Amino acid sequence: MRSPSFSCLLCALVGAASGCGSEGTPEPVPVDRPTLPVPAAGEGFQIDEGAFAVDSGREALFCQRFPVPSDYGDGPMFVRGVESRLPAGTHHFFMSYEPGELAAPEPCVGDAPLVLVDEVAAEENHDAVDGKLAFTAAVGEDAYTLPEGYGIFLESGRGHFTTSHHILNLTAERADMYGVFNVYTAPAKEVVHPVNILNCLLRDVEIAPHETATLEATCTVPFDLDMVVLSSHAHQYLRRFEMRVFDGEQTLPELIYESLQWDSPAIVPLEQPLRLAAGQGLTFSCEYANPTDQPITYGAGDLKEMCAIMSAYAYPPDRTGEVPPSLGGVVVTEGGDTELIDTSDIDGNF
Question: Model-level pTM?
């Protein structure tokens, strides 16, 4: 039985072109969408969602599991970079990875991958991803590459991806959606610094009606490590996300990360990885504006918000070739802190 996913990984992916009318029934839709040249054999692979549509004022999830190409075999995989094309209306896009072969793409739940959030299947889709977050992608034309010698570690080519495409159509028109992703890989001999995920969530979120608020939390690391990628996650009421270094005693004033786009947070590979010693960490803050007559609290959906670090790290260079564990944590009180823990054996995306 699949366990519930960490609070915000909503699901999604590929396969045949499909769409969603006002009742949530998948149907083909003609969409003039961009393409990417497929990576050369041995350099990567492409995931193409096809096309689908979400009506005005609706929120939808598109969730499907997708096999790793068979030529990757059963050894570990390393992702060096991602190139993507995503349209406006994408709330966020995540891709997770889980061991276990698939013969062909399959929906997360039921017979179709696309559901509206007010359908029962949407909650099932929300909870359908057991794999760990592999990487994120930004809205528009985007590409990023990890520093030379670094690669995101995935346990085996005999696994599968589940992508998370959460769509929030706040416009007056139908949103024609798509997603195309090139995943660039490298052989193990070229990756001397394996990378894994580091995520931390503030659980205590409340913004009063017609008010602004800045909420803050700190996550400390249990051992020496190097931050390799910085990124974040929040929802539609966010105005600014910031990160600073916590030196073990206080948060330093220098800003190391900033993102001003709630629907497409900045993804920042660090050419010079950032060293954090055990007991040091990251302080992160979310600035919100609530224009509504209702309070905004923690969660997914309307009148809900989140504030989370979604980043990646490696061991220091003297630990060449060692694979670090996934790290995660939850701060339960605004202004508080927590030490990150090894989440490798904990079900859920982080």
Answer: 0.87
